[in-house]
């Protein structure tokens, strides 16, 4: 019986063997990033993925089912889903979520670049392709859902990660790896210290000013806003406010406004029949040429190309027929290595190193 047959029968495949990973050997490899705006009550059918998936809830709220557990998520939450774990999701009816998704592994997996981030398998599941989830050699707290709304570093990290993946400047892989390591560390520390921000009271007041300004831009994105008007909402001088906003968000207020407009443009491209010129006007651009240039700079492709990709794409992942969901392994999520097993593993590694040295 093949790995695919095992998956279809609902039995665990021995081909997906777990492995030990030392903390200092973590070297994240990102294959794919994307941002998706869901319609109200949109549902992702139960599926499994080949690799690890981390999703940042940029806005809105919804429900995730991971294995046999359900999680309500909202703006600022991070969702972490290991490979080979059945999961599904549903957006809220009133405030559907906007998700930023990153497909990755904790270290390099062979055949990485030649395998797509998702694949439809209509007849049998290719379970042997599912990447194994590492057992970490030290305690690493990576819960399925982390509430990170009040952790100011998260948003700038995702902004930088997406920019690096879109533009692919020289050395971008190093920058992406650094972003992922920072994200993993923040998830770990947030799990240890709780969901509260360690910032002092003045910093919290400043962050509230930034939040108010963000809300103002997100509501009035199609208006001709100036830096002075945005700073006035936060009750700060424009020059000081710009520095403050960049410290918390990793970008200037005008850059953030541009990101909001492009995000709204994606919604129109995905869910409306408006032409490119009409969409440019709807999201606050006076020139369709400038809109197209700004869209391509942030997204990496033109608005027309983006619309064609959306129209031609299906759901991501290995979608499981309902009859095959029962008894399919949900897997452990992220675990640390049992001490005795780890000691045996390390001894074996040292023995192998010794034999190689003698040769």
Describe this entry's structure for a reader:
- With 359 residues, this protein is an alpha+beta fold.
- The protein has 2 domains: 204 residues, Regulatory protein AraC (Jelly Rolls, Sandwich); 99 residues, Arc Repressor Mutant, subunit A.
- The protein is 42% helix and 18% strand.
- It contains 11 helices and 13 strands.
- The chain has a 5-stranded antiparallel sheet. A 5-stranded antiparallel sheet has the order 6-5-8-3-12, with no helix packed on it. It has a 3-stranded parallel sheet with strand order 1-10-13, with no helix packed on it.
Task: List the secondary-structure elements in sequence, H or E.
Answer: HEEEEEEEEEEEHHHHHHHHHEEH
Radius of gyration: 22 Å
> CATH fold name of the largest domain, please?
Jelly Rolls
Structural class: alpha+beta
Mean pLDDT: 75
What is the share of helical residues? 40-55%
Could you describe the largest sheet, including whether it forms a barrel? 5 strands, antiparallel
Topology:
Elements lengths: L2 H7 L9 E3 L7 E9 L5 E6 L3 E8 L1 E6 L2 E6 L2 E5 L5 E5 L6 E8 L28 E3 L8 E3 L6 H14 L4 H22 L7 H19 L7 H8 L3 H12 L3 H19 L4 H7 L5 H12 L3 H10 L5 E2 L15 E2 L2 H20 L1
Parallel strand pairs: 1-10, 10-13
Antiparallel strand pairs: 2-9, 3-8, 3-12, 4-7, 4-9, 5-6, 5-8, 7-11
